[in-house]
Amino acid sequence: MDFQLKTLSIAQAASEKADVLIVLVAAGSGASKDALSALIAQARKAGDLQDKAGKLLALYRPEGCAAPRVLLASLGDGKPASVRSAVAAAIGAAKGSNPRRVVIVATEAMDAAAVGSVVIAAADASYVYGTTKSKAEPRTIRQLVVGADDAGALRQAFGEAAATVAGIELAKEWANRPANHCTPTLLAGAAEDLAKLPNVKCEVLGPKEVAKLGMGAFTAVAQGSAEPLRFVVLRYHGAPKDRAPVVLVGKGITFDTGGVSLKPAAEMDEMKFDMSGAASVLGVFRALGEIQPAINVVGLVPACENMNDGRSVKPGDVVTSMSGQTIEVLNTDAEGRLILCDALDYAKRFAPSAVIDIATLTGACVVALGAVRSGLFSSDDSLASALSAAGDEAQDRCWRLPLDDDYAEGLKSNFADVANIAGRAGGAITAAKFLQRFTSDFPWAHLDIAGTAWKSGAAKGATGRPVGLLVNYLLSESRKGVAKAGSGKAPKAARKRAGKARTS
Ligand code: BES
Ligand code: MN
Ligand code: ZN
Predict the structure, then answer these.
(1) Which of 84, 172, 177, 337 is catalytic?
(2) Ligand 1 center to residue 212 CA distance, Å?
(3) What is the mean pLDDT of the chain?
(4) CA 360 to ligand 1 centroid distance, Å
(5) Which CATH entry fits the domain spanning 2-149: 3.30.230.10, 3.40.50.450, 3.40.220.10, 3.30.200.20?
(6) Phi, psi at residue 326, to the nearest 5°?
(7) How far are the Cα atoms of 169, 263, 414 from residue 149, in angstroms, in the given order?
(8) Residue 179, pLDDT above cutoff 90
(9) Residue 314 falls in the annotated catalytic set
(10) CA–CA distance, 412 with 392 (Å, rounded to integer)
């Protein structure tokens, strides 16, 4: 979809050519004399337009308007969440007439947050998946024009939002693809395509290289599949080389059968979404490539299938992770943490300022937080608060859960350094405790997106979360980095380590 930002007053909007004109109506507005304001005042007087966010009034060929269809959408309190629901409702209603050009204006001046919400909500509501349909209905909305009183002042926010949309849609595309159209090899290919963007590089490792690195846990998960594993290393360089990067690690299980600890058949198809963490990392790089912020970011994606086979890892098998820690695989369905622990250990070599892993890790997190907030775990309070603020701002929210050492009790093993599962209680937390064992060298956070990465039921499909949260976080980090340029460097010893690792 083509996004455009244009200076347009509410009076000018009436003469704007569009298939649908959406007017976001702030509570109490409509006092001016132009055609649209007059319509709003009339509708309000008649009791046909309520102030609750998302309430709509559809008008057909109203007087004084160039657009044949005009949708008045109430903004309620005007907060970003209300802007989102108003735009979502309006685009949902507008879709019925298959519009090509949609213009959105607001009765009150939009700020940066509002314009971002408009762009992201409009894209979300108009998204269509088509890749594996023979007669794909294309997205009918080709052009979305946002009219604002002072387009110049909103240009940057608008550009960042449009780039975030490109990232969200890339994440949706790959997460939505069925597993036979999203193998580890195809997913790695999508990452390689991102290297066409300025300042983005990509390197892909295969089974031999991964085995040579000593990634015994990742290898164990992949060994039951006919599809070879891939380990993706993406880099974005927007800041001086010696600035410590943020490392993102995305769980890339392209299909999770559970392995020998097989999952039940019902809804098993949804385990094609088990690479949503990986997809979100690709999405973030897509956005970074477009925005070009002053920050360094590394993206790591361990990608493989978790399958049943004569070669599959078995309950009770002990594997050796890259960190040297041995792991008793008590349940082969707890595979995400096995591939992530090796990727987290690999992250050390970048001497990162922070490492954030993103994973559809546990059903227990879905039980705890549902589909509203992602689970956030962190060993670092300032990282946790930065992520949670970024999520609030992007309306891609998360909620911090605890990491008390007592939760690790159940991970004890008689046959290895650690087991890959504990009891049923606190399952999202015990999974995070397992990961934490591999993160002692850097500030670390873990986002469990099992409940938020996709929707089940009639609207089954990927959400593109938490691309919005992550892009927002990285942009605010880049602004901080610029503000105190020179600082934020990796500690000397870590830099030395990093240099060594890079040449090896
Ligand atoms: N991919 C699943 C987690 C999941 C389950 C995501 C349901 C979304 C919806 C993960 O690999 C898994 O199977 N986790 C197990 C862990 C258990 C065996 C300790 C789970 O949550 O049941
Ligand atoms: Mn599993
Ligand atoms: Zn899984």
Answers:
(1) 337
(2) 28
(3) 95
(4) 8
(5) 3.40.220.10
(6) -90, 150
(7) 28, 54, 68
(8) yes
(9) no
(10) 36
Residue 28: what pLDDT? 80
Question: What would the DSSP string read from start to end of 177-228?
Answer: S-GGGS-HHHHHHHHHHHTTSTTEEEEEE-HHHHHHTT-HHHHHHHTT-SSP
Write down the residue that tokens 């975030």 correspond to: 164
Residue 499 is predicted with a pLDDT of 40
- Please name the residue whose Cα sits nearest to atom 14 of ligand 1: 362
Q: CATH number of 167-484: 3.30.420.10, 3.50.50.60, 3.30.1360.140, 3.40.630.10?
A: 3.40.630.10
| 307-320 average pLDDT score | 98
Q: Is the CB of 274 under 6 A from ligand 1?
A: yes
Q: Hey, what's the torsion of the CAs at 288, 294, 298, 301, to 10 degrees?
A: -20
Alpha-carbon span 39 to 52, nearest angstrom: 18
- At 140-164, the pLDDT tens digits run 899 999 999 999 999 999 999 999 9
337 has catalytic annotation = yes
**Average pLDDT rounded to a whole number, residues 398-406:** 98
